TrEMBL record:
It is found in: Cytoplasm. The keyword Lipid biosynthesis does not apply. Keywords: 4Fe-4S, Cytoplasm, Iron, Iron-sulfur, Metal-binding, Pyridine nucleotide biosynthesis, Transferase. It comes from Nonomuraea aridisoli. This is Quinolinate synthase. The keyword Metal-binding applies. Binds 1 [4Fe-4S] cluster per subunit.
Amino acid sequence: PASDPGLVERARKAKEALGERLFVLGHHYQRDEVIQFADVTGDSFKLAQQAAARPEAEFIVFCGVHFMAESADILTTDAQKVILPDMAAGCSMADMATFDQVEECWEALEDAGLADQVIPVTYMNSSADIKAFCGRNGGAVCTSSNARRALDWAFQQGEKVLFLPDQHLGRNTAVLEMGMSLDDCVVWNPHRPNGGLTQEQLERARMILWKGHCSVHGRFTAESVDDVRARIPGVNVLVHPECRHEVVLKADHIGSTEHIIKTLRAAPAGSSWAVGTELNLVKRLAQMFPDKNISFLDRTVCYCSTMNRIDLPHLVWALESLVLGEVVNQITVDDDTTHWAKVALDRMLALP
Ligand code: 13P
Ligand code: SF4
């Protein structure tokens, strides 16, 4: 069914019938069969901005994962409805920080007499209640394209940062972009008493990194980089900052999905690139820029299975239901969570 011309035609017709009432957003990791129907494609930051930029659209169909659709619901008006074509499109990284675990961590920081020095910053890849927690406690949201600016802001507000839930983005930004040392970072393990940390470690740390990671990017290793360099002479290695620190250290370029696309667009014809990010995007980039030799950093790593949940049959079902007047798979965030999560998101959107 992936390339079923009947489904392509049905999606096209449903989009046409809904006209300006519909706005379809697509994250760069989505399948080609889905991305062809997106009105706008982007990284998490661009999609959050775009969701807020179309107040006249009655329906926002979000082709991405659950936390992105939640953020879109938070940033859109009450009258707008955000739809996720498959409710199983979650994110394993976002699931690694639950609200109760984060509250427990914060209570431990309060008991340690440190909470008033700590600014919580959460990566966009987190549930709405974690974003609201950050909003309530003087913190902000960041994405991979503005993590440095969000952390600069946070260190103007306090002495330490609790960075949720991606330890790799937090560490890579602190060490490689802000000149901190690895010793300035500690990892809070939510499955261990007191995060597995001593009072002294917490007092010394500047970055308290949550023990979370992306199950896709976490699979690229230092050997992936060594192997590709041995296989392809002169290759440029370009990776997402969700990759492990040792991978990023060995890479030539680092950036969000939007940055990866811009870098490859600007690359000279004939140059070779090994890209460490989700496979749907890497394959698309190889097709978009055939004059460059673009390959996947490690052929043993696979697609993001939750991003891939959004396929053409689910998209057609969501769109045709709207045509018939039925809203399916609506994502709604309650008012209190929306209020505080928006505080944290607005702090990010206001970054210089
Ligand atoms: P960006 O598109 O912001 O780089 O995010 C990557 C990602 O993993 C989204 O799930
Ligand atoms: Fe989550 Fe990683 Fe998939 Fe992005 S690529 S949705 S961070 S599991």
